[in-house]
Model the fold of this input.
Amino acid sequence: MRTFDQNYIDGAFIPVTGDELVDIVDPATEQVLGHARLASREDARRAVEAAMRAQPAFGHTSVDERIAMLGRLQAAMLAHADALLEATITEYGGPVARAQWVASYASQCFGDAARALSSYAFERPVGGSIVVMEPVGVSALFAPWNSTAGTMASKLAAAIAAGCAAVIKPSELSPWQAHVVARAIHAAALPPGVVNIVTGRGADVGAEIGTHPGVAKLSFTGSTPTGKLIARAAVDTMKRVSLALTGKSASLLLDDADLETALPLALGAAFMNSGQACVAGTRLLVPRARMPEVAERLRSAVAALRVGDPRDPAIAIGPMVNRAQYERVQHFIRRGVDQGATLIAGGEGRPDGLDCGWFVRPTVFVDVRNDMDIAREEIFGPVLSVLPVDSEDEAIAVANDSPYGLQAYVFSTDAARARHVASRLQAGTVLINRVAPDLLAPFGGVKQSGVGREFGVAGMEAFLETKTLTSD
Ligand code: NAD
Done:
């Protein structure tokens, strides 16, 4: 049995003072693997105070010193890649290929931040003045359970590059993954207090950090309802806020698309990370004339997908993270049927042969209308809604008819046409004929998918404040 009962504060692992114990359950077997003691508000305050003590000196470190720190973080995270892989598979149920990608990304993003930092102009002439970019101050970094290590590492990389001491609040569902990241950060030997990690619930520990007057900046990744709570609470002390939120991304299959190459990509976009991905392309917009062929191809592609033990490299889809997420997916599959969509693959219940574990059946609905719940709400599981459209204009209108705008996908054999369609889509990122992100380019949402951008230079600038120096 594993026990996680320490915070990482002021450069040391110290006992959690909270009294709530939660089980760590393997979502593939439902076996209890251990326990975590969740942090308290007092722990949260200690973490913020440690960051506040570290901030003045850290904010004045040189670019070279911070590049060296980022290099140590990159190496330390790489050295913990196997431990991170194990934690991501066992605690979260991430399929091995995805978990490997997360482990390598968690290391790589420190290298990417060092690269952005090395060529950044912190001082520049504007008009008759000098504009100086300064660290915003102590920053709180909130991570969701579906990408614990990746979110912790990418936000921290940007904060460190900018010169901001950090308090990280991972999800209460990810104490094991958070602990491995904390061990890696400790191994990088940064000055005490520059990074602090407290794993607790959002309603107390998250709220304590998010409203603490010593915190200048909140960088939050999670759901839109929680993001709204955080943004409202931040206003009292006018904290700077970046929000990376919910998605309901559209994939547009144009009428000239090559189905042989486009459909596997579109299905991959829908079911990536077992469907538990903010950028999942879960609304597939298809020219009506091509629907029969698309439906047939999707049916056989989904039949070939293997669901099961996330350690098996042949597995495409692992379990949902817990019972609540399993029930959520079942609810939406029932809603799809009740509201009149047509099931062509999957459906309610577990896949054949999997009697325990939070496994769901990869599911595809056709004849979906954009006013159905399965087209409007983020399900966060492997459920694809296929919507027929009669023209390119209608495809764009349907794609944009959503409160969200995180990412979109366009599939076409005509590059100029795809670019033109992309220019009309309301989304922070549009991927054309690919599903792999560009991790150096700005990433974030429009509308209710968020505020601000992460990654690369834009990510670092989110932790900087602009000062103007004007003299005679
Ligand atoms: P969530 O909103 O429930 O929680 C996210 C984090 O916020 C957790 O650490 C949680 O404990 C904390 N939190 C909750 N209430 C808080 C409060 N009042 N103050 C401070 N912190 C609080 O989200 P989740 O269920 O963990 O994650 C899934 C959601 O995250 C999905 O909607 C998904 O789309 C979104 N997401 C978005 C991105 C993106 O980049 N846009 C990336 C990954 C996940």
